[in-house]
Write a structure and sequence with these properties.
Strand order of the largest sheet: 3-2-1-4
CATH class of the largest domain: Mainly Alpha
Distance between the termini: 27 Å
CATH architecture of the largest domain: Up-down Bundle
Strand content: 5-15%
Largest sheet: 4 strands, mixed
Length: 248
């Protein structure tokens, strides 16, 4: 499955490998943006996430796998190799799957393997950044990957008419844009048709204030990983937008 300038499954494989390499010798390090987690906890989390979605894709499940099926967390000495086996399984399952095949997902507007594949790029890339930061190094997510992940985030991880937040949240009451400095990409974000929702278009409205940064940093800002210069956007508008995002 090809995205705009990259292969989704290749990106999962590359970022899974980078995640494992960054985590290997730093399992006791704290993960800055996952409170109270060590890198070992992060590895266990991503291992379970990839097992969860690989199982849904492989078995064509119409509901999440039962909790009783979830594998136990590997002992510390085996965490990395266990993660690598799981990542290899996810990649193999997705490569062998038809993206149009219907399966359960949490997204009301898309229930197919293509959703799993696309979202796992974002999940793995952001946690690769987490692990690298915990290890004292830096990772910039490739611009094409980050651009697609921003569009995916704005589609599925923000309160929208297709998936409104429950309980209802305060309306956006404003418009602003995100603009990449390293790619021809921008998004103008507005309130949705109903209160407490958003909508967006993949273009820059030059009449609205913009947050400008690399695609990687814009994605990481959406996930609360980095601070950006948002001087052109009121802090109240930025806070209302953040409250409409579904992140953990």
């Amino acid at each position: 499955m090809n995205g705009p300038g990259f292969d989704f499954i290749d990106a999962i494989a590359v970022h899974s490998d980078g995640f494992a390499s960054a985590a290997r010798d730093h399992l006791e390090a704290a993960v800055e943006h996952c409170p109270r987690w060590t890198v070992a906890d992060l590895v266990a989390h991503l291992t379970e996430v990839q097992w969860f979605w690989a199982t849904i894709a492989e078995e064509k499940l119409s509901a999440p796998p039962e909790d009783a099926r979830r594998p136990a967390t590997a002992p510390p000495a085996e965490l990395i190799e266990n993660f690598r086996r799981g990542a290899d399984r996810l990649v193999s399952v997705l490569r062998a799957s038809d993206g149009a095949e219907a399966v359960w997902t949490w997204a009301p507007a898309q229930h197919d393997i293509a959703f799993i594949t696309r979202h796992q790029v974002q999940e793995t890339a952001v946690h690769h950044w987490d692990a690298a930061r915990a290890a004292g190094s830096a990772v910039a997510i490739e611009a094409p990957v980050a651009v697609d992940a921003i569009t995916e985030f704005l589609t599925f991880s923000v309160s929208s008419d297709a998936d409104p937040a429950e309980p209802a949240r305060a309306s956006l009451n404003g418009r602003f844009a995100l603009r990449c400095t390293d790619a021809e990409a921008a998004w103008t974000i507005s309130g949705g048709a109903t209160a407490g929702t958003t909508s967006f278009v993949q273009s820059l409205d030059r009449d609205v204030p913009a947050i400008t940064a690399t695609a990687s940093d814009l994605l990481l800002w959406l996930y609360g990983r980095v601070d950006l210069d948002i001087a052109l956007v009121s802090s109240d508008l930025a806070a209302r937008f953040s409250a409409l995002c579904f992140t953990d």
